[in-house]
Every structure is written in C-alpha cells, then in structure tokens.
Structure prediction request, 238 residues.
Amino acid sequence: MALSFEQSVEILESITVGTLSLLECIRFLDREIRFYDANSSERIGETGELAADESTPFRPRSPYAVAKSAAFWEVANYREAYGLHACSGILFNHESPLRPERLVTQKIVRAACRIAAHKQEKLKLGNLTVQRDWGWAPEYVDAMWRMLQQDRPDDYVIATGETSRQEDFVAEAFHQVGLDWRDHVESDPTLLRPTDLKIGRANPEKAREQLGWVADSKMSDVVRQMVEVAQDEINIHG
Prediction:
C-alpha cells in the first residue's frame, strides 16, 4: 500500500500491536472464540512467474507488507503455543464498490465513469505494468467464513488464480463505458512507489480442496460490477 510509505509507524503499530492485543484478550478470556486475521498477499512479495501458496517464503516490499508478515506470525504463534482457534486469510487483491477512491482500482473506475460523463478530462496513473490477481470482495468474505467453520484452524491463500496487468484493468474499465483508455490516461512519475510488487500470482488450490471455495468472478467481472455502481452514483450525485 502506497500510504504505508508515508505513515510507516502508524501502519506498523496499528497492524502488529492491534493483532497482538486481540490475541492476548482471547488468551486471557479463555473462552471458545474463533479469530480471523485479515492478512495479505503483499507480505509474500516477489515470486516471479511462480504462483504463491501457503508455504511461499515472505519477501515484503512495503511497511504495510512487513506489518502483515509480523501479524501472520503472531497468529501462528498463538495458535501453536496457546491452542487458539486462530487463522490467517492470505488474500490477494479483492475489490468492491466500497473501496475508497484513494486506492487505485476505485480511482480508475470512477475516473472512467466521470470522463464518459464529461465531468473529468484525464486520469493520471503510475506503473501500469504491475500484475495482480483481482477478485470480488463479497466472494472472499465467504472464504473467510468457511475458514472459521473448520474443526482445525489453518491459513489459506484466497485468490482467483488468474493474474492480469493493471493496464488490462484500466482498459476494461474504459471499455465498460465505451472509451479507449489510451485517449484519456497519462503517466505520472510522482505516483510511483519507492518499491513495488511487480507480479502477484496465486495458487488457491488448498482453499478449493479444504474449504470447497472457488472464485466465480474474475477481473473483467469485478470491473463491470464496480463500474455499474460508480455510474449510478455519479449520475445521482455528480
């Protein structure tokens, strides 16, 4: 997350200390509580063309990813040391209309809709060559629920298994509103991160086998649903 480079201390403290505090509360309460850690694929880092699974080593490339790495091990330690029913969902990118516009996917979608409605002229973006596995957030919540229904707590990679370039995400958003993205998007070097994950590639096989979970919505489906909501809101509120 780009914001974590600007607010490193806040990000690290809120994620690591926040997770640890919740685990400690559960330990001292000594009750049958099931804990889900909203972890992130960002902690995995670069794997090249290899699809990451639950055993892939960590190579975090942002303060946010470093914090998520620490939280993952906190959960694993409390599960093993104290017998807590605690699990981590290693979620790859999951989107919905609830995303704030400071995040790039919502920024892209809303800009495309505003440009189509003649309420914005250009969209400025950083690195379009990065690749991500984009899924639909409501489906990922179902995966979270399934994790907590297991008799034995464990960690799971949750993803679609399909990776796309950010350029493809942009192209799909503009296609949904009848435009060619190349006529409306400009590159802005100031939006580049100090370090960035080039490729996010996932292997969600364990979730399929043990949770019976498979992503139905892929990148184009995600963009279409986000555009539909954004168009309605822009038409109503401007």
